[in-house]
Design goal:
It is built from 19 helices and 33 strands. By secondary structure, it is α+β, with helices and mostly antiparallel strands. Strands 1, 2, 9, 10, 11, 12, 14, 15, 16, 17 and 20 form an 11-stranded antiparallel sheet that branches. The longest helix has about 35 residues. One of its GO terms (biological process) is carbohydrate metabolic process. One of its GO terms (molecular function) is carbohydrate binding. InterPro entries: 6-hairpin_glycosidase_sf, 6hp_glycosidase-like_sf, Gal_mutarotase_sf_dom, GH65_N, Glyco_hydro_65_C, Glyco_hydro_65_M, Glyco_hydro_65_N, Malt_Pase/Glycosyl_Hdrlase.
Length: about 775
């Protein structure tokens, strides 16, 4: 871990070109708008180590599975969000010498991710081989207001010479995914055109036929005066561009504005793509760079109004939390219910940009509280639309009924190909059910249950019904051969969390059925008919709920992570020689699996989700037992521990865990940020502040707050949208203020007392 970024409240700043950290910076300084994302690659040529990455949400490739030993039931492919046409490229030559920061002397380099405005900028002086010096100032963004548009302003000033600057703006579709299984290239050219003022390129994926059309145009000015340019068109395989040269005097500023529209066949028919791209580009060019920039600033101002967290008295913490919120808002904007949240967002290729249980278990709460409820609803609808595929998935694995959602997916099909995850990590089904509960509990949108929720719940319950194992000798139901959230144990019997979430799902499904029967009888009848739901089934669910087996140790009075857990060597992590950690880099997999070391919250995940069903003592006993055995080698781990520690009053532990999640990428804690940022942990960080330090819970339709100040901050404040009102909660050293920023009055419970906060007013409560 090397700290090289400057602390600042609103920006991420790299001062001095950190060549060896460049791929990490490419991830951290990524920009995105939910529709497309771009790593912080340079516009000009760069011959140093780099992961060139431009990604279009939902455009993926089914890369043929690569495994050593095929097992029946494996998915045929691993889906990957594709590295798409590089649209940012602008080649620069100074008197014939290519500008390449890996090959020249770089001075006064600054790279800034301006989170307030949603832009990435860079400035530096480059001294070329022959001593010529230029200053470059580049600014770019992907538009939040017009999601298909990317815009770049790139300015060059010769500092100690006058001469010819040659500029080559281009679109390059000849790109490859770094993680391609067979080193294959996934794109084929469909169409290209270099017109007088516009160049267009359409490429398509070799499988699935996704088409992406990029249309670009550019303008140049010298010292503010527009230039009339002589352009040399360039066409190569999957590549279009222009080359033009301009004589520039010393200290004159040459500015290039490059505009690109990227459109895809997800939104337009093949025949419409070019026109759609041209139309989007035309209106962007007419608006001009300044106007597009202004729009960008405005959309981000709205985003921050809804989701900002302010931490007073700790710049590093302030920067970190804003970075997390910024990346989450860049990753998913929620307008398109076909999209989801990849564990790395658009910042890298690891995990293929696919959907994991991370979305339901970790990301949903952020969108529930900081955006209109339709956004979180769309995350649920995404799974509803995949229900048929989840049923097929269950059939494929030999189940007669029910639905098993995939552990990793792009289109509803499973695409993870490690058996212990594909076949065994079935707890993900529970997270999908839990998300429905979470959404309805938070928003009060009961109508969702009849519209979509029940169908998903019933099919998941059917899956559990078939997956459980009745043991006559014990007259109990068990779930054998699973992997729980802790992936450092495989093929265990009766993972407490899995048994618990399975039984909870059936319980909730029955509750929803009762609710619908009473409140929406006609819809209830329709659904019973549609699902062909039989009384024997619901009776069976009730029986399983009553007779579910939960591993438990009477002596320690704790739930057991799985049947054999106490047979392990229980030496706590603190007694391990630090040279052994991280275990996943130092131990054989076999040794890890036999150990008691826990990768991420498991029993505690259950106690967190179902927090209102367990008393503090139970949570405390289990936390005290499991946390010391936990190595937190998943980025999903520290946040749950931080939230639970807050509830238990373990303030130091809560803060320690919070620190591990908050600056995970900025300080490259796990030594892997070059692969991309950890979006799930970003959502977890947000939860650590709001659900942890803020103590936010929703009970019986009322917002409950139980805040404490971790002591390292003067104060902190967060915003939550709740049932139509937006509340700002400020936790100071002595008191808590809840300010209603809307006109809709809100009921809030602080430290167990209920208050009504009138429109545009506030209440203050002492700690
Ligand atoms: C975690 C999983 C998670 C995945 C993607 C793994 O390391 O163990 O729980 O779904 O990463 O974030």
């Amino acid at each position: 871990m090397k700290k090289y970024l400057k602390e600042d409240k609103w920006s991420i700043i790299e001062e001095g070109f950190q060549l060896h950290q460049h791929e990490i910076s490419e991830s951290i300084f990524s920009i995105g708008n939910g529709y497309m994302g771009q790593r912080a690659n340079f516009e000009e040529a760069y011959s140093g180590p780099t992961l060139q990455g431009s990604y279009m949400a939902g455009v993926y490739y089914p890369d043929k599975t690569r495994v050593g030993w095929w097992k029946n039931g494996y998915p045929e492919y691993f889906a990957k969000v594709l590295n798409s046409t590089n649209w940012i490229g602008i080649g620069i030559e100074i008197e014939g010498e290519i500008l390449d920061l890996a090959a020249c002397t770089v001075r006064e380099f600054t790279r800034v991710l301006n989170m307030k405005e949603g832009t990435l900028s860079r400035s530096f002086i480059a001294e070329l081989e022959d001593g010529k010096e230029i200053r470059v100032e580049a600014l770019r963004f992907v538009s939040m207001a017009r999601h298909e548009i990317g815009a770049i302003r790139y300015a060059i000033t010769p500092l100690n010479f006058s001469g010819k600057v040659t500029v080559t703006p281009y679109l390059d579709g000849d790109v490859q995914n770094k993680d391609s299984n067979y080193d294959e290239k996934f794109w084929a050219e469909v169409y290209k055109e270099v017109g007088e003022s516009e160049a267009a390129l359409t490429v398509k994926t070799k499988k699935l036929d996704f088409h992406v059309t990029s249309v670009m145009s550019f303008e140049m000015s010298k010292n503010g005066e527009p230039l009339v340019l002589e352009l040399e068109p360039i066409e190569k395989d999957k590549y279009v561009g222009y080359r033009t040269s301009v004589d520039v005097q010393q200290d004159e500023q040459l500015v290039i504005y490059k505009y690109v529209a990227n459109v895809t066949s997800r939104d337009y028919g093949f025949g419409q793509l070019l026109d759609a791209g041209r139309a989007a580009l035309k209106s962007a060019v007419e608006a001009g760079f300044q106007e597009l920039h202004k729009e960008q600033v405005n959309v981000w101002a709205d985003k921050w109004r809804e989701s900002d967290i302010v931490i007073e008295g700790d710049v590093a913490a302030q920067q970190a939390i804003r970075f997390n919120i910024f990346q989450l808002n860049q990753t998913y904007t929620g307008e398109d219910d076909r999209l989801n949240i990849g564990p790395k967002g658009f910042t890298g290729e690891k995990y293929g940009g696919s959907t994991y249980w991370d979305t339901e278990a970790y990301c949903l709460p952020f969108y529930l509280s900081t955006a209109d409820s339709s956004i979180a609803r769309n995350l649920l609808i995404y799974r509803y639309k995949h229900l048929q595929k989840a049923k097929e998935n269950a059939r494929k694995l030999g189940f007669v009924k029910g639905a098993l959602y995939p552990m990793v997916t792009m289109n509803g099909e499973e695409c993870h190909n490690e058996w212990e995850i594909t076949f065994e990590e079935i707890h993900r089904n529970g997270a999908i059910a839990y998300a429905i509960y979470n959404y309805v509990n938070y928003t009060g949108d009961q109508a969702y249950l009849g519209q979509y929720g029940l169908e998903v719940l019933a099919e998941i319950s059917r899956f559990w019904e078939e997956r459980v194992n009745y043991v006559p000798a014990k007259d109990q139901y068990m779930i054998l051969g699973v992997t729980g959230p802790n992936e450092y144990e495989n093929n265990v019997n009766n993972n407490w969390y899995t048994n618990r979430i399975a039984s909870w799902t059936m319980e909730y499904t029955l509750e929803v059925l009762q609710y619908l029967k009473k409140s929406e009888p006609t819809r209830y009848e329709e659904l019973v008919e549609k699902l062909q739901l039989k009384e024997e089934e619901t009776e069976k669910w009730s029986e399983i709920i009553t007779k579910m087996y939960y591993p438990y140790d009477g002596e320690k009075d704790i739930y057991l992570q799985q049947d054999g857990f106490l047979d392990k060597d229980l030496t706590p992590v603190r007694d391990l020689d630090p040279k052994h950690t991280p275990l996943n880099q130092n131990w054989s997999w076999d040794r890890i699996l036999r150990s008691a070391y826990i990768k991420q919250a498991d029993v505690l995940q259950g106690l967190f989700f179902l927090g209102d069903r367990y008393d503090l003592d139970t949570k405390k006993r289990n936390f005290d037992f499991y946390e010391p055995l936990t190595v937190h080698e998943s980025s999903l781990s520290p946040c749950v521990h931080s939230i639970m520690a807050c509830e238990l009053g373990y303030k130091e532990k809560a803060y320690e865990m919070y620190l591990r999640t908050a600056r995970l990428d900025l300080d490259n804690y796990n030594n892997d940020t070059e692969d991309g940022c950890h979006s799930t942990s970003m959502a977890g960080t947000w939860m650590s502040v709001v659900h942890g330090f803020g103590g936010l819970r929703v009970k019986d339709g009322e917002l409950h707050l139980n805040p404490f100040n971790p002591g390292h901050w003067k104060s902190f404040s967060f915003k939550v949208m709740f049932r139509g009102s937006r509340l700002k909660v400020t936790v100071g050293e002595q008191d808590v203020t809840v300010t209603n920023e809307t006109k809709i009055p809100a009921k809030v419970n602080v430290y167990g007392n209920s208050y009504t906060v009138g429109g545009l007013s506030h209440v203050k409560v002492n700690h």
